[in-house]
């Protein structure tokens, strides 16, 4: 969840600009999701970041004793979500920002705590990451660039929520990078103010003293299991980590010195804009010193329970794609409040 989810548990991604050679990938961030490696490309600099205060997706009515009760209004419009998906696809073609968009979705949802009943206190995918107070959390370094990229799309389609937009962007980025189709549902309700943002410290760390234990503490809290932890870690196949942002990785390697986008950083895979199972192969073999291996990456082949799945995914890309798609969809929904309650699909 540099710029990757379970690599150390955070996705950090550079938002490169300009055409990329076939099969290249873009950057990560410094939490175990995706370490942040976002760069300020010309495309990003041209996009002005608008105010983070969205139109409330809930209305408040006053009750006795000065209290207020929030009543949910309609969440997202399906037609606008479909149109926004096409705009995201075009954005990906021109900026190659796949990794940072995956990180954006994961970091909005990865704050979920299954032990907390009430929404939005329980965290999860609720659009809270649009507010400065949460953007400034250490694990979210560089994600302001992701918000700059998607804000014009939000402005164009006001009848969709930030929570849905972040998850739509994340799933679309995986699919457009060659990954599996994610069985997403939509209708997520947004929080209405920065006071509803989760406290800092909910996301995974890239270099904990006990990596396997740390991953379990963080992801079990979200209701995810060992198989899902390992599958989600495979998203590190996208992106690169920049030491000036995350404290991890080399300033430049043979795979990143020419971009795409701002050059530099260290990737987990050679083709860091292509989604496949090469992350597991590279971590297992550890033959290339130009490729990044974080403590939480190494743990996938060192911990006996994790290793079962990591070995499987290194040998069988189809199995990885299947398990990844299911885990990504689950992560995108945990903790979210849906309107309608059952959510809806864009493809049925």
Automatic annotation (TrEMBL):
TM regions (residue ranges): none
The EC class name is oxidoreductase
Task: Indicate the segments forming the Plant heme peroxidase family profile domain, all copies.
Answer: 101-348
Residue stretches of biased makeup (Basic and acidic residues) = 241-255
Q: Name one GO cellular component term.
A: chloroplast
Q: Which gene encodes it?
A: LOC123426765
Record CDD domains: ascorbate_peroxidase
- What does the sequence similarity comment in the record state about its family? Belongs to the peroxidase family. Ascorbate peroxidase subfamily.
- Compositional bias of kind Polar residues: 50-61
Keyword entries, A-Z: Calcium, Chloroplast, Heme, Hydrogen peroxide, Iron, Metal-binding, Oxidoreductase, Peroxidase, Plastid, Potassium, Transit peptide
Catalytic activity, as annotated: L-ascorbate + H2O2 = L-dehydroascorbate + 2 H2O
Q: What name is this protein filed under?
A: L-ascorbate peroxidase
Cellular compartments annotated: Plastid, Chloroplast
User: Where does this chain mainly localize?
Assistant: plastid
Task: For the region Disordered, give the residue spans.
Answer: 8-42, 49-68, 235-266
The cofactor(s) it depends on are: heme b
InterPro entries cross-referenced by the UniProt entry? Ccp1-like, Haem_peroxidase, Haem_peroxidase_sf, Peroxidase_I, Peroxidases_heam-ligand_BS
Q: What Pfam families does the record point to?
A: peroxidase
Q: Which GO terms describe its biological process?
A: cellular response to oxidative stress; hydrogen peroxide catabolic process; response to reactive oxygen species
Q: Which GO terms describe its molecular function?
A: heme binding; L-ascorbate peroxidase activity; metal ion binding; peroxidase activity
Which E.C. number(s) belong to this protein? 1.11.1.11
